[in-house]
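Appendix B: complex inputs.
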Amino acid sequence: MNPEKVVFGFFIVLALTLNFGFFLGEIDNVAHHDVYELFAVIVVNLIATVLKFGERTQIGAVLLATSLVAVLQLLAAAVVWAVAAHASQEGVTPAVMASIVSLTGGAMLANVVSVVLLVIETVMLKR
Amino acid sequence: MENIVFVVFRRMRAPLLTLIVTYAVAMLGLVLIPGRDAAGHVWRMDLFHAFYFFSYTATTIGFGELPYELTDAQRLWVTFTIYLTVIVWVYSIGTLIALLQDPAFRQFVSERRFVRRVRRLAERFYLVCGYGETGSALVKALTDRDQLAVVVEINPERVSHLRLEGLRQYVPALCGDAGSPQHLLAAGLQHPRCAGVAALTNFNEVNLKIAIASKLLRPRLPVICRADSRDVEANLASFGTDHIVDPFDTFASRFAVAVRTPGLSLLHRWLTGRRGEALPEPSFPPRQGLWILCGYGRFGKAVLTRMDELGLEVVVVEAAPEHTGTPSGGCVVGRGTEADTLREAGIERAVGLIAGTSDDANNLSIVMTALALKPGLFVVLRQNLQESQPIVEAVKAAMVMHPATIIADKIRVLLATPLLNELEQIASYQPDSWACELLSRITAVVASRVPAVWEVLVDRDGAYAVAHALAGGQRVLLYHVLSDPLERERALAAIALLLLRPGERIVLPEPDTVLRPGDRLLLCGRHQVRDRMEWTLQNRGSLAYILTGEHRPAGHLWRWLAPRRSARTGGAE
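Resulting structure:
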């Protein structure tokens, strides 16, 4: 067992599960989506991205690409939330929440691809 | 080479992860600890403000306690986390800077830059492997004549030396082993503009590898190789290396030419001289009388063979005949730097002396002692290192032979003006009077400065206007090309030395020779004349003026109008 692989897999799967947890619920219901959960999703995704740095294989390169997509979407969601909460008059309205959640939905798709690739790589590794 | 990028990313992993985790913990703590707003109500900092707070404290900018003053509990947490985040920042930035200064990383960056520069070269260039004495002399000789070179050299000191040289052209240099094909490819071996390879490293095996790689990857590219032993020479010749240059042999044959045909030797020096140099004076090594040859190493042996062929009387002086072997005629044991040895060799009745040891200081000492014993002696000095140049000049030897420069010049001629090499081969079968006649013709043309020597290929690239006229069925004679495009009655100060066409070699072609497509011309003349001649060769208007004496309209519109205008004026008359 390679401890590096454990940490690697752990963070990639955690990025997906947390993302899923945040995404779950009615899309425009502010009460269903927690800001701390989004925070955790972003931190774990960032860690997963950095862990993928320096992977030489083709699959490693695609993994890094999916992570970068996820981080980009999540940061966009965070910026939308911050602007809505602190820089606008209305605050976080259901419409804003819907766009935040849909952004994280896109990130979740990228994370799903990541996990699928991880599974494929594991299956291919016949050891 | 690409691996280094992954290494950089891998090494940045740990600092980045630490940074992310530290920020997350610090922000979370600040959000969880309750604070108070200006009115004293309980107020929790949100994630956005926590991120903002640590963005300015971790980077040590520090705006203060925003948006409200912190409570003591918050301050306790912040005190702890400020130290944490600042240290993590310093660690991350430090790692990044250390990476940028990593020698492997810098080597990678400079290699990338080198590859990009070589790829962008748009003119003919020569690939010079090895920047030692010979390599640097070759690069200087090429760049002085506005030709480009790319250098591969294994020793980083020599590479930085190249950067400080102050050459006329920018010379991209790669610090790496020229024996590895990867480096040769990076240096543009397969670049369409690469016009030749010179393998001049100090190691025969490396030169061999370069020659093999070049011949396999670019079979038609001329490859010139330096070789110090017969073995390697035979090996190089076996797979078609175009020219193999043995420094000592080249050197000895130049000496032989100087003794046998001084005019030819002078012609060579004139035609290969450096731009702006005054025409070299002739020197006449004595053919009768005793010669003293100091040093019987590889150099001495090569020279002695030639001297025996010429029938000169030679006494050899050698300090360690047990290492070098004794020549068949015996030798005087000694270094030649002391008067006794030279007297023993017969300096009193000697006419010439060759100081040919591999040590510049000894050579100089030999020359000075010999000249003190017998003023007026014809001395030939072998110069080993370029840096000895100033003192070598001060000694005023009749002939100075610097093997590196001699080889460099030979290679430059082979690469840049191969026709000149052809001419010299033909000339070596001519009597000395032939060379002297040509010398006087050159003097008439160039007055006192070394002439420019250049080649012209009659095709659409080398001489667009001439090729166009020939394709149109016009007759272009050699003297047309040699006429002044501004005043056709005047001849340009240039001489056609050689005309080469399939199956024919015409030395000093007559002015009424008819040019044909594909002809190769070797010309010499003043430097300005070369530029002037380009007009005749490339500009159809200029050539038409020389051929017919009329100024033809050059632009499309005027060319279309011309027949109409002449018809009208013709009708009016």
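Chain B is about 50% helix and 15% strand.
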